[in-house]
Task: inverse folding
């Protein structure tokens, strides 16, 4: 068990390192002088020199890479080319809003996928199953940002029930925060839910076909108990793993939805940074989200092996 | 280490290809959603090929004075935009651009991913490093990585194709490798190898036919995602640039007019939805048709 954990942790560390190197190399792909491009018409020789110095752009490449990696470990991700503010600070400012939206979106997705997936597996082949399949096919085919706009058009424009965009801090008004959270969260939730529905259904179907289900039924247990105690518990374990893997897709969706709904999170930060050619900020967001994904998946892996006693530590 | 096998040519493996292909084909056709998908795709190919010639107006034929922001009408079935351009024509012409970008992106992803997967599956020593690298790419949310690539290289169709290609390459590598690994363990492959078959021969005769199925399925699904990704990238201004129209670009331009001219946003969006749905349905249909167990189930159902 310990050897497995160690190997897993080493693997994760290698991938983490690779992710940081890839992120670092993004800056090297800029055709030209990144600082000059970022400053554009606001060019001023003193600030230019200061930014170049701070970002270490004149040092040899291996040194730059080393500096970047060491800095990242210490929490120093450079400074914004636009404002000079530390990137880490900007990221931390925006992170809570994104996490809140991602969590809300995931929650909506699970609220949709779990019942729908279970019911369509239990009633396989029925009209409910068919309808659920159609729903999930549509859900994964629809452009999420477009659906968001349609929601805004319907719920904010025509019906006027909810605000169309923006953000209210939960510290100021919980209802305000919630009312601004609903549409973006549902937008994300529909897509995530559609993806997850298919997995839940497949997983429950597989559980239903297992020997332990047959045994439980032949013992005379009522179907609801069979479901609760045997089928669902086993079916939900792979769903946890898949949800972890889906985190990358979820975060991608959050980014674009933030753009549509003017939600002040990391997504919006990235877009502003891209407009302003603020490369260190773009790098920072990319690194942060990738690291988040890796951490969550590592935790999920470890939890999975802890939850399922059948997993062997080879 | 092969001995001289002159005069001892390996008997060609049984070639069930033709009947397998026919079986797969008929299993696919039995799947009604997949057929719907194929029909939509046929329309799409038609639109991409001849659309620009058939469109009633040009992509950039605007008339701000007379035709600005008109709602749908017999003259303009999808209405006009803020420059007086006919939205229907633009949607039709944009089909070609969107499809082109998606197609090239997936070809790039295939072109890099499949060889990498083959090599990783075949040669154990490269397997670990290659797959670790894929794991690294998988850690980035696809859209974000594409945005970052476009941020540093600049917007535009070409860079978009490269960005999407890079982002989708890992999944092809993974699928190819998986197929290669499962084929390698088959008895007939090990037998062939023990008879001295070279790697290239094994590749050509045994691995490739088995790998094609999953790759085909993934191609259809990746085309779906490529269209969505291009749309998202163009929607935020990073993808296809004017004067070229793409569905995502049309949505970008409709952003300021969502409430006043809903037709600028609704129709391109529906076009994207239908196209992506079609690719997904065909991909799923292929997957079911190619899975031998599913296929026999489908055939049994048809015979009864």
Result:
């Amino acid at each position: 068990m310990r050897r497995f954990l160690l190997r897993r942790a080493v693997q994760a560390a290698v991938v983490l390192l690779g992710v940081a190197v890839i992120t670092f190399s993004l800056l090297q792909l800029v055709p030209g002088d990144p600082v000059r491009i970022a400053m554009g018409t606001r060019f001023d020789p003193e600030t230019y020199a200061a930014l170049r110095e701070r970002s270490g752009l004149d040092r040899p490449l291996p040194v730059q890479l080393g500096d970047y990696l060491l800095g990242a470990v210490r929490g120093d991700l450079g400074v914004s080319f636009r404002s000079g503010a530390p990137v880490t600070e900007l990221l931390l400012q925006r992170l809570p809003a994104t996490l809140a939206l991602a969590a809300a979106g995931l929650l909506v997705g699970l609220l949709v996928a779990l019942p729908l997936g279970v019911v369509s597996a239990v009633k396989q082949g029925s009209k409910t199953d068919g309808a659920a399949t159609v729903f999930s096919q549509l859900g994964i085919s629809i452009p999420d940002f477009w659906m968001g706009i349609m929601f805004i058009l319907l719920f904010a424009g025509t019906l006027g029930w909810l605000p169309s965009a923006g953000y209210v801090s939960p510290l100021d008004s919980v209802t305000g925060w919630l009312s601004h959270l609903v549409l973006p969260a549902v937008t994300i939730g529909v897509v995530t839910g559609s993806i997850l529905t298919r997995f839940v259904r497949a997983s429950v179907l597989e559980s239903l076909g297992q020997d332990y289900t047959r045994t439980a039924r032949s013992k005379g247990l009522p179907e609801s108990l069979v479901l609760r105690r045997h089928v669902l518990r086993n079916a939900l374990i792979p769903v946890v793993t898949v949800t972890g893997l889906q985190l990358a897709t979820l975060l991608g969706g959050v980014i674009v939805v933030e753009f549509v709904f003017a939600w002040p999170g990391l997504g919006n930060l990235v877009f502003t940074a891209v407009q302003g050619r603020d490369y260190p900020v773009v790098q920072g967001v990319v690194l942060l989200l990738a690291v988040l994904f890796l951490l969550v998946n590592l935790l999920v892996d470890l939890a999975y092996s802890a939850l399922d006693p059948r997993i062997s530590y080879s | 280490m092969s001995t001289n096998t002159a005069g001892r040519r390996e008997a060609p493996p049984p070639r069930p290809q033709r009947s397998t292909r026919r079986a797969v084909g008929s299993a696919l056709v039995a799947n009604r959603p997949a057929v719907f998908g194929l029909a939509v795709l046929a329309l799409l190919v038609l639109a991409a090929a001849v659309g620009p010639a058939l469109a009633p107006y040009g992509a950039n034929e605007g008339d701000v004075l007379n035709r600005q922001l008109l709602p749908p009408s017999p003259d303009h079935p999808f209405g006009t935009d803020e420059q007086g351009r006919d939205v229907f024509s633009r949607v039709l012409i944009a089909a070609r651009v969107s499809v082109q970008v998606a197609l090239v992106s997936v070809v790039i992803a295939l072109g890099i991913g499949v060889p990498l997967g083959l090599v990783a599956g075949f040669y154990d020593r490269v397997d670990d490093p290659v797959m670790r690298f894929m794991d690294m790419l998988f850690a980035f949310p696809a859209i974000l990585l594409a945005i970052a690539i476009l941020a540093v290289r600049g917007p535009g169709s070409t860079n978009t194709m490269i960005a999407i290609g890079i982002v989708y390459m890992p999944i092809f590598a993974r699928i190819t490798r998986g197929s290669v690994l499962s084929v390698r363990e088959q008895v007939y492959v090990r037998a062939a190898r023990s008879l001295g078959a070279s790697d290239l021969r094994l590749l050509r005769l045994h691995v490739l036919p088995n790998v094609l199925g999953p790759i085909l399925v993934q191609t259809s699904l990746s085309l779906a995602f490529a269209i969505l990704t291009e749309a998202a990238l163009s929607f935020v201004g990073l993808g296809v640039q004017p004067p070229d129209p793409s569905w995502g670009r049309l949505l970008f331009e409709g952003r300021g007019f969502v409430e006043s001219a809903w037709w600028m946003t609704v129709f391109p969006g529906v076009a994207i939805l239908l196209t992506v749905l079609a690719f997904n349905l065909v991909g799923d249909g292929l997957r079911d048709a190619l899975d031998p167990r599913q296929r026999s189930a489908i055939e049994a159902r048809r015979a009864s």
About this structure: The mean pLDDT of chain A is 85. The first helix of chain A runs from residue 2 to 28. Chain A touches chain B through 48 residues (CB under 8 Å). The domain at 96-279 of chain A is CATH 1.10.3720.10 (MetI-like fold).
